[in-house]
């Protein structure tokens, strides 16, 4: 009599049952992930790590398999900034016809091998378990030692089939050999309602440098739940910036381990939210070796009834002496109904370290607005200038010119959309 | 040009200005002197449109327009400029970009063509040279990390670029050494002419040695107690405000 339950974990598990014979690679990790998911369920408010972000809308939605291997996505493609060699995924599936061929870096679609990396924790993190269970495709990018991999744009487009929300779970693996370099610009765009649940496993070998710029500009009715696991070896640099503009409900969960001496991690971000958007940046930075440096400035510009969340934990292991950690979360509230939740944590077991963190919340300064207006600048323009100035400090940290321009343009476009 | 009639204003129901009558004809520079707390800065802010002041009586017109009914940006585009006593820092906003945005916003409001980056830089560099300021002043963020003197000179640079028809200088001399004071005065004097008027607000006579006013008004307790020629400033320097204020009480 009863229709089969098609929402939440049950919906995903039944999708897995229907799909598993066609999924690439070894089925063992997927079966284990399914078991974890069955046991843990989707995260709820009782889970400390999910105290501020409620996944109920995801749990209650019914998601379908993407049916659009050759969907027309010209309108979406037109919105993709021009930067680097494109690798385009539509509804989670690689589209060779829309993609270029990287030089320097090696690329293969995940679907070709189905091989998982060893950084992700599907045993512990339910969304990673969900990804592991259902991952069909993704980007496997490898830069050999002492090689410059150039600039790659990893593009995710989501197409809209009204009344039929889809879910896709891309699995990306980025590996840089010793002293290799790569600039990776990740861009996520879409239309309609969908769940984009990517997991990335990023390995940076000795002395290698990855510049990783992420532009999350999903549809305003989409769910974007990204989890990134990054391991940085001795003298390696992970220079990352996340710009969050889109999504009805979004979370970027960053697990970064400085595993070798002298590793450097920059985990900067900005979230520009309006309407009823909810976006969460949760990061765990683990200093597991001495002389590591981590820098994290997360800026939030919150309008309407939007809500921003920042949870940042810095862990310093007992032997990670001379660690230098800095974390700052700043929020600018443009409306009395906007909200920021900020939860910084330091967990330090070494005794010779320098770690600091801070948080500020404020509104635009009326003195600054008056100063600009007294020079002839209209009030709306004055406010826009001050918001841009607030963001500039964060975006300026991106040293790669083309990547920084992508972010600056995205902020300009966002501002024009708000004004329209 | 500027006509103030019976102007009374309060902050949080506390009366500060208690009926000011003042006319600054076109082409003239008038000084307003007075002790601390006399209402000098309040007058400057009311005329430039800062929020938080309630005009309870009287009004002010600029070229016959009701100045107090205009937004701050409209007053600026009409040609009113306030040099702030405490210039505001704008982290993340470049000085050149700020100035060009302001100039073009004013030009747009007046229906004039905007200046492109090259035209603007040419104009701004010319003014920098005339004011003996370093070119890097344009590259820095607005007033961020500026010394007190640099902030005041930056106000004068803005004035020079924006070319107001009425400049209100609110204690622009405070905190300046004599060299900076001379630069500020030269900046004002360079603009003097038949189309430029100024209201120079100061506590001390010192600035008025360099910007010689056409008229001097003494403001105390929210009223103008006396008006006279430049000699009034020197008289006040000798006698102080106490006698005058006591006389008026």
Q: What's a quick, concise take on this entry?
A:
The complex is a heterodimer of chains A (420) and B (249). Chain A has 420 residues and is an alpha/beta fold. Chain A has helices spanning 8-19, 27-40, 56-60, 74-78, 126-134, 366-373, 379-395, 401-419; strands at 85-90, 93-94, 106-109, 139-143, 148-158, 166-168, 171-176, 181-190, 194-196, 199-204, 209-217, 223-232, 237-244, 249-258, 264-273, 278-287, 293-302, 307-316, 324-333, 339-348, 354-362.
Structure description:
The complex is a heterodimer of chains A (420) and B (249). Chain A is an alpha/beta fold. Chain A has two domains: 8-363, no CATH class; 364-420, no CATH class. Chain A is built from eight helices and 21 strands. Chain A has helices spanning 8-19, 27-40, 56-60, 74-78, 126-134, 366-373, 379-395, 401-419, and strands at 85-90, 93-94, 106-109, 139-143, 148-158, 166-168, 171-176, 181-190, 194-196, 199-204, 209-217, 223-232, 237-244, 249-258, 264-273, 278-287, 293-302, 307-316, 324-333, 339-348, 354-362. In chain A, strands 3, 4, 6, 7, 9, 10, 12, 14, 16, 18 and 20 form an eleven-stranded mixed beta sheet that branches. In chain A, strand 1 (85-90) and strand 2 (93-94) form a beta hairpin. Chain B is built from nine helices and twelve strands. In chain B, the strands form three sheets. Chain B has a six-stranded mixed beta sheet, with helices on both faces. A four-stranded antiparallel beta sheet of chain B has the order 2-1-4-5, with helices on one face. A two-stranded antiparallel sheet of chain B has the order 7-8. In chain B, a hairpin with a 2-residue loop joins strand 4 (54-62) and strand 5 (65-66). The mean pLDDT of chain B is 93.
